[in-house]
Amino acid sequence: DNGVEVLDEVYEWLVVGRIREREIEAAHRCLSRMWDRDLVPGISVMNRMVGLYTETGRLDRAIEILSEMEGCGEDEGVPPDASTFMCVVCGLASMGDAARTRATLQRMADSLKIH
Predict the structure, then answer these.
(1) pLDDT level of residue 1 (50, 70, 90 thresholds)
(2) Could you tell me the pLDDT band of residue 35, with boundaries at 50, 70 and 90?
């Protein structure tokens, strides 16, 4: 449906705009509104949100989004890609959190079927 596609693009544009302005809470509100309306953000939007949370030291939120993405089927949302996982891995590693870094790398291997 064209109307849904346009609405989806508008919300993505709003999320990306808030991310560029480093307005993390406003970006998350826009993302939440997309989900409330059953709109599916693209992988680049999700990766940017995860990246912004990681850059600002809010790794718990980044991991929360990663988990939401992992729970999505392809027809329900956007599963995480290697970039999503690596963003979280780099943030955890920079904090010196070896256990969670290894756990996230294992999740990535399992999710992406890298064995």
Answers:
(1) low
(2) confident
Alpha helix (H) ranges present in 1-115?
2-20, 24-36, 43-55, 59-70, 82-94, 98-111
Rounded to the nearest 10 degrees, the angle between the axes of helix 98-111 and helix 82-94 is 170
- Residues 6+ positions from 28 with CB-CB distance below 8 Å: 49, 61
Q: What is the number of other CB atoms lying within 10 angstroms of the CB of residue 105?
A: 17
pTM of the model: 0.77
Those residues with Cβ within 8 angstroms of residue 24's Cβ, 6 or more apart along the chain or in another chain: 18, 52, 53, 56, 58
Instruction: Decide if 51 contacts 87 (C-beta within 8 A).
Output: yes
